[in-house]
TrEMBL record:
This is Murein transglycosylase. Keywords: Signal. It comes from Hoeflea alexandrii. Residues 30-233 form the Transglycosylase SLT domain. Residues 1-20 form the signal peptide. It holds the Pfam family SLT_2.
Length: 266
């Protein structure tokens, strides 16, 4: 993954115009939607060069739609979800990584107030500690979800963020990530790269494919969602709300809190 900077913010005007393109629930209208969206994106400040390169290889992402419609693991009981996600393995491996990266986690906690446990829990569940960060064409995934009626407005914002990342040269048009367009070792959506991406190793750039930047950015995300240094993060405690900001599924939130507590020794 290419090193990134974060010297800009998505302007407020970008998310509005694109919503005029008509969404659809089948692949039939996708090519026409792209052409309409490109016109609106150009009016919103995305260059023709960026649009042409970004959409050159975009295809309707059937796999993304299938996964979006069938997120069955979030409907499991807590015990079933923990078993499916391999929680004991994440805890065991996570404790070793906490020692291996002790200086990094100490620095992150000093700066952002977030301890190692929940960061490692997210890292393990999202990418198996960086072993698999995705093999899907992210432009196709995000464009398909922006076109799809189920969450069109949300993913239209993500699509504009993705185009900004491409326009600035921070990722390539054919960048590979997860099925919903997530990026890096803790799986940031494009807009969150812009809002919360930070450098964690002093290199000067931002590369969410590295543990340092991914973990520091995740801590920054949690702080941005109300994390308070020293407060608890179990259900009912102050910092659990920040964990809720990470993922909307209750079973996922509880898993982060539970795995994190075991790693932190609580």
């Amino acid at each position: 993954m290419k090193a990134w900077g974060i010297a800009f913010i998505i302007t407020a005007g970008l998310s509005g115009p694109a919503q005029a393109a008509t969404c659809g629930n089948t692949s039939a209208g996708f090519p026409a939607w792209i052409e309409q969206f490109k016109k609106e994106a150009a009016r919103a400040g995305i260059s023709d060069r960026t649009l042409n390169s970004a959409f050159k290889n975009v295809r309707y992402a059937t796999k993304t739609i299938s996964l979006d419609r069938n997120q069955r693991s979030f409907k499991l009981s807590f015990e079933q979800f923990m078993q499916k996600r391999g929680a004991p393995t994440i805890v065991s491996r996570g404790k070793k990584l906490k020692q291996q990266y002790s200086r990094l986690f100490s620095a992150i906690e000093r700066k952002y107030g977030v301890p190692a446990g929940p960061l490692i829990a997210i890292w393990g569940m999202e990418s198996g500690f960086g072993r698999f960060t995705g093999n899907q064409h992210t432009m196709s995934a995000v464009a398909t979800l922006a076109y799809d009626c189920r969450r069109s407005a949300f993913f239209t914002e993500q699509l504009y963020a993705q185009l900004q990342l491409i326009q600035k040269g921070w990722i390539s048009p054919d960048f590979k990530g997860a099925a919903h367009g997530e990026i890096g070792q803790t799986q940031f959506l494009p807009a969150n790269v812009i809002r919360f991406g930070v450098n964690g190793d002093g290199s000067g750039g931002i590369n969410l494919g590295t543990p340092a930047d991914a973990l520091a950015s995740t801590a920054n995300f949690l702080r941005g969602h109300g994390w308070r240094a020293g407060a608890g993060y179990q259900p009912g405690e102050p910092n659990f709300r920040a964990i809720q900001g990470w993922n909307a599924a209750g079973v996922y939130q509880k898993a982060i809190a539970s795995i994190g507590a075991e790693i932190d020794g609580g």
